[in-house]
Amino acid sequence: MTVPDKATRNLTIPLSEDHTVTGILTRPESCRPGETPGLVLAHGANNDLNHPLLVAVAERLAAQGAASSLRFNFPYAERGASHPDRPAVLEDAYRRAHDALVDDDVCPPGPVFLGGKSLGARVAAELVSRQQEGEGLLASGLIFLGYPLHAPGAKDRPRVESLRRIGVPSLFVEGSRDPFCDLDLLGSIAESLDAPGTLFVVEGGGHSLEITKTADRSQEQVYDAVAAEIARFMRSHSSPAS
Fold this sequence. Notes:
The chain is 31% helix and 19% strand. The chain contains 6 helices and 8 strands.
């Protein structure tokens, strides 16, 4: 069965009786209900659901028929505030976005992956770690875009608490110039996870996988490579979460 509706749809995601956030669902035109994988993508601290990296990943995964992706705003971004909400508020919004994707009445996903950029990646990791402890969210895998492992210049003080119980496959997509992530340190941490993670490095990429104007490839080519790697990862781990 295929669904011929539009590939992109705006959603209003309820958080409470009085508050909502915006979501954008991007899916393949030939989406297979109950089979096509789903991906929740949360934004970073200083941006929103329209960050170019998130848009590029979502649109390319849909074009390849690889996944339906739901991007959404955290409440502070929806309000236009500059400082992130408390962790509990961020986590609740992520849960509601997850529910909106799972309960989509046009093309509900098969296996569900969780992820995001920077802050959004950390929230996803926390929720999966917490599921291993009796609460949180189920996932077939985790996709991290620019994981914020430490503050710039502070790799001796890594922030690993949210990675404490990652029992599902994970893909870390990192730029080689990212000041928030020492690659050697991340590599050793990824190997030590309950389910060892995979590291994909964008040479010359920054925290948002952005490259300089003097690079030997375009930003669009970088996005193509990143989306292709994510699609491969999702295909390899597309059994339903248990």
